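Sequence, please.
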């Protein structure tokens, strides 16, 4: 689906499209929010893996219990937010470092500008928002170039894609 080489994340994700070109201020705000979202995704995913390592290293279990309670609280808050503001429909997505491809039920034109919002972590109802330019759209598939991604947001995206890729490799090898 994408022409990009490198690490990609493939999955079913809630995704929405909005036509148009955002203002520089909107883009700046979205990139700042994306950085926050990438940090939150890393924090939500990290504890399970870290707990496995901690068991063998003799980490303080009081801190681990507190962390588990915080995880539970974040899950509850996330469920409340989703109940008040339902997520967009899920679709097949391939997210790369510079591009995104998805099953698209509407006809988009190459060169068209818009904004994609996608929810990368089901436990966290905070979208990643990217201004994009459509590269191709045919047979119900769209591919777009991610535009104006800040350096920090790009770093967060690359790290997240790498973590997801590493986890997929571990799952295939039976170490997950």
């Amino acid at each position: 689906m994408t022409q990009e080489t490198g690490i990609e994340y493939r999955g079913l994700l809630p995704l929405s499209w909005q036509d148009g070109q955002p203002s520089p201020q909107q883009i700046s705000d979205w990139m700042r929010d994306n950085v926050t979202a990438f940090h939150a995704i890393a924090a939500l995913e990290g504890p399970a893996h870290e707990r496995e390592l901690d068991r063998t290293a003799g980490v303080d279990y009081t801190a681990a219990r507190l962390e588990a309670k915080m995880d539970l609280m974040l899950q509850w808050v996330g469920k409340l937010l989703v109940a008040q503001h339902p997520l967009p429909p899920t679709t097949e997505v391939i997210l790369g470092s510079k591009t995104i491809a998805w099953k698209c039920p509407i006809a988009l034109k190459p060169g068209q500008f818009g904004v994609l919002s996608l929810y990368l972590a089901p436990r966290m109802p905070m979208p990643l928002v990217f201004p994009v330019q459509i590269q191709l759209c045919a047979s119900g598939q769209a591919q777009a170039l991610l535009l104006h991604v800040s350096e920090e947001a790009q770093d967060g995206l690359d790290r997240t894609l790498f973590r997801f890729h590493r986890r997929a490799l571990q799952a295939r090898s039976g170490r997950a």
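Residues 119 and 127 are 5 Å apart (CA to CA).
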